[in-house]
Amino acid sequence: MRLPHHDRYDYSAISRRANYDWPDGKRLAVYLGINIEHFAFGTGLGHSVTVEGPPPDPRTFSWRDYGNRVGVWRLFDLLDELGLPACHLINTTVLDYAPDIPQAINARRDEYIGHGRTNAERQGQMWEEDEARLIAYVRDALAKHGGRPPRGWMGPWMSQSRVTPDLLKEAGFDFLMDWPCDDQPIWLRTRAGPLMSVPYPLEINDSPMMLVRHHTAVDFERMIIDQFDEMLAQSERHALVCGIALHTMIMGQPYRLRALRRALKYIVDHPQREKIWFTRPGEIFDHCAGLKAGVVPGSDA
Length: 301
What we know:
Layout: E1 28-36, H1 58-82, E2 87-90, H2 93-97, H3 100-108, E3 111-114, H4 128-146, E4 152-153, H5 164-170, E5 175-176, E6 186-188, E7 195-197, H6 206-212, H7 217-234, E8 240-247, H8 248-251, H9 254-268, E9 276-278, H10 281-289
Parallel strand pairs: 1-2, 1-8, 1-9, 2-3, 3-4, 4-5, 5-7
Antiparallel strand pairs: 6-7
């Protein structure tokens, strides 16, 4: 019996794959994905830290906007303090609303990841033509502010339609981050050719862990450390990707920032640091795209 299937990738057991290294023989790729989002006032979707009030609900809107006014700057300071690179999954409405933010990203030479116009909407609910226009608009807006088109994409709320991978490939994107099915990059099939899936964490992610499951910042600190330690041990057998997903209005809160600093310092100061590749998703794509056919799942299709 065959269940309905997406037909984007075939099954591949990680234990049976070819082994490979990251650059300079490193074994565990670690990246930070900072979600920088903007929301409509009084309408649309949005994160919530408490019971939402009736529209326009300025309390909830203001908490979300704290991330752009305060939280993101605390995260930038922490990244600078620890000397860590990052990628930024950014709504294009942030670019004009808070122009200081893209300026800081450019100064750090960090990577932009396409993340829709606003997290007040989901692209998976759009008609194909409307979604194609959305993707092209985001690509062009980020190219204008960042100096080059973004190479990676993650939809608002990780939302996709049945044709999103096709549209991304047709728009010139190299990879997406919406398919958390693996700890290694894999190739997806699209009607325009292969598109890479770079792992993005659904669980080592402050939004679902704190806003949905109600874990504390200290809980999340422990999750990051345990994930890192176990993946570092597992990477003796397979090169792996350890992503850490953060949202500015969540981890940018002072009491949570302390827990995040402890977790990241644990990784940065780890005695086996020589095995760790602190990187960005675009660099992960470049490395995997250069491996011989058959090494990355889907590359021999």
